[in-house]
Structure formats: C-alpha cells, structure tokens
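Work through this:
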Amino acid sequence: MWNSFSFRYIKENRTASLLLAGAALLSSLLLSLMTTLAYNLWMDYVKQQAAKGVTEIRPTTLFIVYGVVLALICAALIAMIHNAFAVSMGSRLQHLGILKSVGATPRQIRTFLVQEATALCVLPILLGTAIGVGICYMFVEQTIGLGQSLGLDVDYNVSFEYHILVAVISLAAAFLTAVLSAWIPARKISRLSPMEAIFGGVEPQAEKMRSFRLLSKTFGVYGELARKSIYNRRKSMRAATFVLFLSFIGFFIFLSAETISGLSTQETYYEKYHDVWDLMLTREAGPENEQSADAAQVGNAQTTQSASADSLLETLRAVPGVSRCISYQVIDTTLFLPEDMLSEELKQIGVETMLPEAERANVAGQEGWRTAVHLFVLDGQSFAGYCEDHNISSDAGAVAVNLLWDDRESDYMNRKYLPFVADDSGELYPGENASEPVLYYDACTNEIPAIREELEQKALNLVLSENAFRPLAALLSEAGTFSGAETNYNIYLEEAIREKEAESEAVREAIAALTPDEGYTLEGRIQEEASDQAARKGLRIVMGVLAALLACVGIAGILSATLGQIYQRKKEFARYLSVGVSPKDMQKLLFLEGLFIIGRPFLIAVIIDVPVTALLLQMSPPTAGQFISHLPLVPVLIFLCISAGAVSLAYLAAARSICQGDLVEILKDETMV
C-alpha cells in the first residue's frame, strides 16, 4: 500500500519531486567532487614525500582544514535538503492526517516518508556522484596542463587518481545526507495529531518583530516588509546564508592576501632585482670542493675550480647580448673579532643583545667575540668593478659592509642600522688556537654587490676577491667548517634586448648550450616573472572554483527555501493584495528580499575583510595606496553578479508563481499558513 501511495504521489507532483531530486543531485555532485579532489591532493602529497625519501607520511594541517570544510559542507547540505523535504512534506499534511486518522502509526508515517525520499534520491545520487568525478578529472587534468605550460619541474608522475573506497565514501555520505534530511522533518510531522495534520497545523502566532528603521527610510515600506519577512523566515534561511557568507569571506580574504603577496613579491624581488640580473647560472659544488683534511689538496682543488670558473666566465661574457656577468660564491662561517674592532655603538648596546649567538673568546692574547661572518666571494674583475663603483681602494682584496640591523629600534619593514666595526681596516682570526689572522679587510662601505643576494642582518658581511678567499678556504676546510659552495653567474643582458622575449630567449638558449645538463641550473628573471603571474592567475581560478562550490551550496539552499515556500507564502501575499498592494509592488518586495539575502552576507564579508587586509598590509611591504590601485574588483564583481543573478532568478520564478491565483480562494484556504 505504501509503495503504491508513494508512486502515485510522485507521479502527480512532478515539480516537487524534481526539486527534491535536483537537491539530491547537487549534494551528491558536490560531495563526490570534494572527496575525489581531497583524495587526489592526498595522493599528490604522498608522491611528493616519497620523492623526497620520506617513509612515514602524516596528514598536514591543510588536510585537517580540508576535512573541517568538508564537514561544514555536509552540514550545510543537510540543512538545505532538509528544508526541501520539510516543505514537500508540509504540503501533504492533509493526506498524512487522513492516514493517521485511519490507524497509521507515527513510526509507519516516518518510515514511509523516509523510504519515499530515499527512492526519489537513488538515481540522482548515482548520477551526481559520476558527474562529480568527471568534473574533478577535468579540473585535475587542466591543473596538470597549467603546470606543464609553466615549465614546472616535478620529479614524480602527476596524474588523476581514483579509488573504489572514494566512491564508497562519496555514495555513503550522499545517502546519509539525504536520509537525515528526510528523517528530521518526517519525525516532526509524524508527531502531529490527526486533527492538526488535517487542518494543516496551527498557524504560527506572530512573534515580537524587530524594527528596521534604516531600511524603511532607505527603501520605504516595501524595504521594511521585505526585511521583516526574511527575519520571520530566518531559521529556514540561516544555513544557506551562512554558507554563502563563508564563500564570500573565504574568496575575499584570499584575493586580498594573494594581491598583497603579489605586490610584495613584485616590489621585494622582481622590481628590486630588475636592474641587477636577467639570467642566473648556478653550478653545484663539485667533487673537487668536498671536505678534505689535506689543506694542499683543498688548495689544488680550489685552483682547479677557479681556472674552470674563469674559463666559463669569459665564455659567458663573450655571448652576444650579455652586458655583464659576475661570478660569485656565498659562504657562511664563524670567525674571531678582537674587542677593539667593534664599533662604539655596538659595544654600548652590548654584543650579547645585538648578536645573541656570538661567543666571547680569547685568541692570540686578545679578548673578543666569535661571531657569524657572511662572505661574498667575487671574481677578480667583478671585485675591482665593485670597488670602483663605490670609490674605494682595497689592496687586501676584502671590503667590510659596515651595517648591523638594530632590531630594537626598528622592524624588518623599516630597518635601521648601526656600524658593526669601528675602523675601515681590521683583521679576523679563524679559531681559538690561531696565532695569526686569516683575513684582512682595508675598506668599508654600506652596500653589497649588485647580485641576487641579500645582506645578512645579524652577521659581519665581507666582500672578497677570489684571491683573498683562497687561503681562507684552505684553512676552513682543514678545520672541517667548509666543504665547497655553489658558484653563481649573475648575468645582465644588454638594454636593447632584455625586455624582448624572443631576443632574451635566444641568449638564454645560447647560454644553456654552453653548459652540460648535470650540475648546472639556469634561471631567468623575465621567465620567472611571467611564470609567477600565470601561477597566480591559475591559483585565483582554483580558489574561485572552490569558493563557487560553497556558493552553490548556499544558493541551492536559498533556491530550495524560496521556491519551496511558495505554497505557504501565497496566503501572505494574498493578504497584501487584499489591502491594495499591486502585483507590481509585490514583485518589488520580492526583488528587495533577494537583494537583502545576497547583500547581507556580502557586506558582512567586506566589513570583515577590511581589517584583515589592513593587518596584512601592516605586515607586508606594499602600502595601502598600492593595494587600492591593484584592488581585485573584477573577480569580486563577477562572483557577486553570478551569485546575485542566481538568487534573482529564484525570486523571479517565485514572484510569477505567487502573483498568480484567485485571491478569494487563497484567503478561504485554511490549510495555508
């Protein structure tokens, strides 16, 4: 009997049945898409860790957050479909009341309604799961294609992954969502008495209503009526508007953070090094640089390496289109500085305060400090050019960059410096047992060479020629504190071709042809900048898709609540008609409702995003003016227009349905509440 009754109801109420089936299809699609995407992200992470040699792989915070988001989506979907089932079941109260009056028990009513809902959702859930997998497959393939077009070098196989367990989880989550969504309103309806069910329940008493004076003054009486109607139905709209708010705030904060990050990268990297380097060739430290206890062997290795580097350096400088080329190494070590070498400012503040890692020591009868030393080792010609550019002379082949960051009086965004050493010349010792200094400097300056490197903030920075560094390298290697360093070739192109893609790419290919495949890495600033912009664009698309998924859940909930409540709201609008409100005015009222529904979460998201953006700007190099000039308005407006358009279509359909019908018959119908 129950099966026959359900089949007849579904056949005679196709619109309501299609609404429920559509809600189930959308929910299963989203759940399938999210679980399949989560599985592919996990498999990609596993492959990354395996490529690095990691054996014990544990989920990161990102996957925990993803799980929380997935749980929120499930909760929102339950709320959305629950509302659709509640509306459908509420429209059948008379039928259910008659069944209860002839002996149907609450348990039978509840079971019958849940079985009917399950039967309605089986095919949509299966279809939605398959569509979700297909969408995820296309998304992953597009992402892989984007990575390949950007030239990303990945040392493991990247491909779409799927597992039967993912299908089981997706289907189980979708069916559980549908069953819970149907069981909640079925349980409530089954508890009604037969008389309450037959007469459609008791019309709810009007509760104390809030006043919305601002909306009344702005939009008139229709604005106030629209806002009060939403307030009165806030429970059915709460989950949908909350999820819509989450999609707005997540997308807005991401856009703000990504824009600030892009401006920061542009300012602190691409613009900073725009006139410093165009191509960077890096040679890894070879076997000749490996640690050796024999200083003579190290000296011979250094001589061999220097000759090889000089040969390649001259070849690079002769490449057509190359304006200049600097060969350099960066070495971090620890050396001893006598006390009298330190500046008065540093001694007054305290070495322990400014250099927490420094250690007091006594070397060659002198009190002083063992402290970090950062060395920039340049080829001979480049070192001579560096001295000439800064109007200094160095017979020792070493120059001190006399700057130490005073982090007590400034932050990393606005650094203030004090002198590190007192005089323009000094000597440094290698260790506690040394009797002779290992390194002399005889000049000071406040700038490092024009290369792609940063000033070390809490160390003594020294710029050396290769000849000055060679004896130090032998001593450091003998002490076991130096085992070679990579050699960098900082290449700057001629002005006429550096911004022309074809010409600069030709120079890049010519340089790549001069070096073997192994042991060398060639980077291009222009290519890096283009790849960075493309990657950021792709990331915006990815985050836009994820935000759109959340927005779909919220909009679907609004569609369900709006279209599903047409039957119940007909009497409300019939009363408006009875007091002289025209159909055109009712359409205006519904339009304002849609505006408030989409506008409220949007405005709240913007209000929250403003202080978050201000905080991010305070922690980043870009200024507020720079951010405003690059404000991501286009993606925000596109996202808002699509969301508002979907809600407007729902209310347009609702307006046409509500405004149709016989006024007298609607007012006489006591089952409408």
